[in-house]
Amino acid sequence: MGLVRTALFNWAFARHHQGTLVFRIEDTDAARDSEESYEQLLDSLRWLGFDWDEGPEVGGPHAPYRQSQRMDLYKDIAGKLLDAGHAYHCYCSQEELDTRREAARAAGKPSGYDGHCRELSAEQVEEYRAQGRTPIVRFRMPDETITFTDLVRGELTFTPENVPDYGIVRANGAPLYTLVNPVDDALMEITHVLRGEDLLSSTPRQIALYKALIELGVAKEIPAFGHLPYVMGEGNKKLSKRDPESSLNLYRERGFLPEGLLNYLSLLGWSLSADQDIFTMDEMTAAFDIADVNPNPARFDLKKCEAINGDHIRLLDVKDFTERCAPWLKAPFAPWAPEDFDDAKWQAIAPHAQTRLKVLSEITANVDFLFLPEPVFDEPSWTKAMKEGSDALLRTAREKLESADWTSPESLKEAVLAAGEAHGLKLGKAQAPVRVAVTGRTVGLPLFESLEILGKDTTLTRIDAALAKPTA
């Protein structure tokens, strides 16, 4: 969810300013990244409705846009940084690094890299190589304070002791994120970067690298950065990729609309106005200003997300609604046989169902009584509705319904109301046994419209079956 929210803000920012949105695939970790994950990412972005001006599938002047296909570029730039003295080989083992960091902490000093290999002599280098050590490449941070204006957080300052030299190439020659992203930003002429707050500590490092790339003639300028607030989960903990509620696929499978989900995610750090929570993506992009993003962490509230999605479901025209429900009206979601599905009944009930759903997957349980041979009884609902005396009420309701006009939901309502009055009950109490007998549940779609669509014969047959069912 955090990744989608970041993509959304970048997309809205680019569209608001009629800019160029660049979509780049960070797949330099061969052990973690696969062709399957790449295809899933593209599919997810398509489903959400994002488009991009440069990147996979659309191309662009700075192709390729997959980092795994740009390795020669990174190797070349790393070599230039080494030759110019902006980077150096570091032979420190992990054990040595850990020991020195612990000592620094114990002395109350910053525990970052201490520059041990910054100025190695030729003899020291030869000795390390004789030991079989393979170096990493570290960037040499300048001994100066770095200040920049964050688009979300304002002016930020980092002193040298808090931004030590850092690795840009692994010992096996693989480039690190700290090198490849600034290099790609430079070569792709990126002007603005909106990213998560967790990357804020790396920004002064990258600014220093940009300055070196400008000196080398690789970069033209340093991009403007905006660091977006954390998305928090349960217990006010940062929502991580491992949290179930963080998975985009989960929301897609439950039947969230892309526009409903994006509407909610946009509210995690931004708002269109103080009194408007529901809006389209066109309305968002027209109004989006990065300066309006709140830097404080935003909490993911599933109930509010569902409520906003429900509002977007109700904004659909009925034809669109029925089409979007289609996956949940067949296997593996539907419990009825394909031949028992009646499209005429579905088209008739759809407008009533549309007013009740929070997510599309709820449609299956809401309409199953129309297509199953008999209702699936929710036993707690049955026990709750069929209290002592309910069978007598149900018999009276059956008599009234048998003589009612079945072309009018209002007539069916009057029949159940009359049955309730005969037993000293208001409509709400009177209709509960009827609803359970016919649909199997105490809550659901508008009852009398449902009865009309189900039909007289089936309704009366189900009431007879309920009367024959033991109440205890």
TrEMBL record:
Which organism encodes this protein? Streptomyces lincolnensis
Top-level class of the enzyme under EC nomenclature: ligase
- Database matches in Gene3D superfamilies: 1.10.10.350, Glutamate-tRNA synthetase, class I, anticodon-binding domain 1 (1.10.8.70), HUPs (3.40.50.620)
List the SUPFAM superfamilies: An anticodon-binding domain of class I aminoacyl-tRNA synthetases (SSF48163), Nucleotidylyl transferase (SSF52374)
Location of the motif 'KMSKS' region: 238-242
rRNA-binding recorded as keyword: no
Q: Which Pfam families match?
A: Anticodon_2, tRNA-synt_1c
Subunit structure as annotated in this protein's UniProt entry: Monomer.
The UniProt keywords, alphabetically, are: Aminoacyl-tRNA synthetase, ATP-binding, Cytoplasm, Ligase, Metal-binding, Nucleotide-binding, Protein biosynthesis, Zinc
Q: Which GO terms describe its cellular component?
A: cytosol
Please state which protein family the record places this protein in: Belongs to the class-I aminoacyl-tRNA synthetase family. Glutamate--tRNA ligase type 1 subfamily.
Kindly provide the name given to this protein in its UniProt entry: Glutamate--tRNA ligase
Instruction: Determine if Cell inner membrane is one of this entry's keywords.
Output: no
**Corresponding gene?**
gltX
Molecular function per GO: ATP binding; glutamate-tRNA ligase activity; tRNA binding; zinc ion binding
Please list the residues that bind ATP: 241
Cofactor notes? Binds 1 zinc ion per subunit.
| Compartment(s) | Cytoplasm
